[in-house]
TrEMBL record:
Every Carbohydrate kinase PfkB domain range: 66-248
GO molecular function, one term: ATP binding
Cofactor(s) this protein cannot do without: Mg(2+)
Biological source species: Tripterygium wilfordii (Thunder God vine)
UniProt xrefs under Pfam families: PfkB
Pathway assignment: Purine metabolism; AMP biosynthesis via salvage pathway; AMP from adenosine: step 1/1
Protein name in UniProt: Adenosine kinase
Length: 254
């Protein structure tokens, strides 16, 4: 029997975090100076920037980068809960109403502890929950579960109520050099990571994000969970052998 090959179409996955650009325009120095914007710089918008988008639209050729309607999968970093929880809620509700896949990352212990209400509001819409063992234990603590066992926590998260019954929730917890824990429908699977000699370990920054990226690359192609985790482990393994979250010119994932 030949395996069915699913090609991922452009725009199938939408990610939300703190984007650098979602409206593009070529502007002049006068515009930059007016809003105190320096070249090659990223800033957090302030009250003085409120009129900026309207002015750009009226004076310049603006290209909007939009993707909510087109996307079939959504991935949102937990950090975005501190920036625009209302945006997350709208996307989550859109996903549930249109039988799309909504995934979110716990992102940090801080988010679990100090953005608990916002996180709980969107949790029923999550089809996939990603995190590491530290974040999972923080989630357990703030919910009063009285367990530090990552497998138990993953199962409990997967069994929390859902807004839509289209998909069962899958919880994916990474544990550094220890196996990846995947909980679905009350059961747990563990997947070993790619072991790396200590002398090849360069930088673990970005390893968790790389894992999710690899996982999603297969999920949008409708690959089984085993392949999603394998791709995630591959991507994380590549990242930790390099400085920063950087990639080689060509992947060798097969």
């Amino acid at each position: 029997m030949m395996a069915r090959l699913v090609m991922a179409s452009e725009g199938i996955l939408l990610g939300m975090g703190n984007p650098l650009l979602d409206i593009l325009a070529v502007v002049d120095d006068e515009f930059l100076n007016k809003y105190d914007i320096k070249l090659n710089n990223a800033i957090r918008a302030e009250e003085k920037h409120i009129p900026m988008n309207e002015e750009m639209g009226s004076k310049y050729n603006v290209e909007c980068i939009a993707g909510v309607e087109k996307a079939k999968y959504f991935y949102i970093a937990g950090f975005f809960l501190t920036g625009s929880p209302d945006s997350i809620q709208l996307v989550a509700e859109h996903a549930a109403a249109n039988n799309k896949v909504f995934a979110m990352n716990l992102s940090s212990r801080f988010i679990c502890e100090f953005s608990k209400d916002a996180q709980e509001k969107v949790l029923p819409y999550m089809d996939y929950v990603f995190g590491n063992e530290t974040e999972a234990r923080a989630f357990s603590k703030v919910h009063g579960w009285n367990t530090d066992n990552v497998e138990e926590i993953a199962v409990k998260i997967s069994q929390l109520s859902k807004a839509s019954g289209t998909y069962k929730r899958i919880t994916v917890i990474t544990q550094g050099a220890d196996p990846v824990v995947v909980a679905e429908d009350g059961t747990v699977k563990k997947f070993p990571v790619i072991l790396l000699p200590k002398e090849k370990l360069v930088d673990t920054n970005g390893a968790g994000d790389a894992f999710v990226g690899g996982f999603l690359s297969q999920l949008v192609q409708e690959k089984p969970i085993e392949e999603c985790v394998r791709a995630g482990n591959y991507a994380a393994n590549v990242i930790i052998q390099r400085s920063g979250c950087t990639y080689p010119d060509k992947p060798d994932f097969h």
